[in-house]
Amino acid sequence: MVVLALGISLCVSLVHFVRIVNAGIPRDLAPAAGEVSPAVRYSFTGAMSPTKKESAYLHLPTYATGIIFHLGTFLSFFLFVWIWIGLPLPGIPLVLVTGFLTLSVACGLSMLGKRILERKLRLLSNPDDYLSNMLVDLFQATLVLSLWISAMKPFCFLTMALLLLYFPVGKLKHALYFFAARYQLGWFFGRRGVWPP
Amino acid sequence: MTNDQLQHAIDLLRPSGDSRLLTHLNSCVHCGLCAESCLFYLATGDERLTPARKADLVSSIYRRYHSVTGKLLPWLVGARELNSESIDEMVELLFGSCTLCGRCTMHCSIGVDVTFLVQTGRKMLSEMGLVPATLQATVQAAVETGNNMAIPVEDYRDTLQWMEEELTDEVGDPEARIPLDKPGRKILYTLNPREPKFFPLSISAMAKIFYAAGESWTLSTRMYDVTNYAYFSGNDGEAALIADRLWSEMKNLQAEQLVLAECGHGTRAFRWESPNYLERSFPFPVMSSVEYIAGCIREGRIRLDPEKIRERVTLHDPCNLVRNGGVVREQRYILQSFVPDFVEMTPSGIDNHCCGGGGGMLSMSEYNEWRMKAGSVKAEQIRRTGASIVVTPCHNCVDQLIQINAFYKLGVRILTMAEIVADALIIEHETRIAKQSRAPLK
Ligand code: SF4
Ligand code: SF4
Questions:
Q1: Does any domain span residue B15?
Q2: Other CB atoms within 10 Å distance of the CB of residue B174
Q3: B13 falls within a domain
Q4: Which among B30, B110, B272 has the least Cβ separation from residue A124?
């Protein structure tokens, strides 16, 4: 089931990826005032830091919550493969991983709660936003539980399959577009001599 | 509106050409963290005015017509039809409450180019003939008369003559000139039509700088308008037509270099967008007057009196020149070279807030109320500096700042860069004559 979902997910994601790469970067006939490479590097590093990005420094708790949640998601994918191929997870790492993923799930739920409670976010949200968050929360939660209760493993595999299938369809695909967007931003501000500042 | 127009507007969202549109239409995660980057949201607290809402208005229509999920399950991904309801909202949000300042883009948590999406939405509205009448009238005036204020040639010539008299008095040299239509000069200089129409002294201020630098320059009668409001209306055809006139005038007058007057969007539209509108590269160098003045100071071609400006001065950064145009340091270099009490706004430079008059807002009188409200952010920034002079290298911003000044009772003076520099210029006739003999006027 997971293999099939993974196959479908990879194929559809590949279509997105190929579309982006095939379309290529914009053509700009105006003479550049700066360099693209350092600006792209800055776009992925300095410009993302909470010292420079207003969406981060004005919202530090949300920013931290988001970082933990994303780290938790990557860790969950890694752990899923770990469990899948049947590798053991000894005591201390198991406790640490459980602690971090529990925190990550809490962060995900708090983001969901914020989306439900804050009018500004509610106005902006569509069912996809709630569903995407819930799927990732559920995946992380079932994974943590299956680390301790082996009867939970089928649920974990099921949520993983759903997550994989949904990934290229809804907003979760931002994991792919994020890189293209940051690159484009670096390209734009780099050519114009704005970045790096 | 015809079905054809509607279909053309929808087609504009079909990602083609490069990956820019495809990327930004698919990247927003609806985190809402960009809200505070936008002066319209900051000033009003209205949740409909967040950058994300404006971007999503465009992306949601894209999803409805160009994405599989949006076609099959529109309710799931918030895909919207292009209908009278969404169109009304587009006009209100994309024209009425966005200055295309790009601040949200720079600070977006993902990197969504909100400005580009708003611009794409404006192109759709333009395709459907729904550009606000006031903005379209400004574009039309430029297309039909060659300048956006429809100034008759005679009035323009008279104003220049009057300003030439001002210049001769000011520099004490009866030979000082404001050259018009002189072929073969090094520089063709442009104007914002607001100058001959309302603020002619800024023409004599720049002429004084050219005079002091011993520059070989000229203005044109046929095409002097630096602005290009079609960039804001979203009509690339008209934007190309307006830009092409300046290219042609450079050729007509055989000028070597184009210096653009202090106009943020005009500089952006010409320096950055016109080669793409016209699909050709510049055969001549183009620079803003700010870069030109900074160069004159750096090369010692003009000298400024540091005793002249005793008041506290602050600087407003025009979004199109600074955040979207990369001219960030030159204006600071100029002011720091002769203003002893220069203070930055907070935030400043590429992070500075828009004045609220950009994006064609000043010409769209139907949105005056929102524009003045949005201006409260800038008013507060100015107030906090304690400055009594606000300098900004953009006539559009000057216009908005003058209105903010009166509306919020700030009691400051608003000057262009040329004006404050001209005030402090040291005119040395001997030096000027020596400069001229080193670089003779053509
Ligand atoms: S535009 Fe950027 S900051 Fe704003 S909601 Fe979308 S992803 Fe978040
Ligand atoms: S471009 Fe400027 S005015 Fe427009 S939504 Fe973004 S921050 Fe607001």
A1: yes
A2: 9
A3: yes
A4: B30
- Non-local CB neighbours of B422 within 8 Å, separated by 6+ positions: B204, B205, B206, B208, B209
The rounded distance, in Å, linking the Cα atoms of B212 and B229 is 33
Non-local (6+) Cβ contacts of A191 within 8 A are A28, A30, A32, A33, A34, A36, A39
Residue B260 Cβ contacting ligand 2 at under 6 Å:
no
Sign of the Cα pseudo-torsion (A92, A95, A98, A103, in order): negative
Q: Which domain holds residue A167?
A: 2-16+34-191
* Closest approach of B55 to chain A, Cα-based (Å): 10
User: Under DSSP, is residue B217 helix (H, G, I), strand (E, B) or coil?
Assistant: strand
Q: How far apart are CA B382 and CA B403, in angstroms?
A: 13
Whether B208 and B278 share a structural domain: yes
User: The complex's ipTM?
Assistant: 0.94
Q: What is the pLDDT of residues B288-320, one digit of tens each?
A: 999 999 999 999 999 999 999 999 999 999 999
Per-residue pLDDT of B256-269, as tens digits, reads: 999 999 999 999 99
Summarize pLDDT for A99-153 with one digit per residue, the tens. 999 999 999 999 999 999 999 999 999 999 999 999 999 999 999 999 899 899 9
- Nearest CB partner across the interface for A124, out of B53, B77, B351: B53
Show the tokens assigned to B72.
């099959």
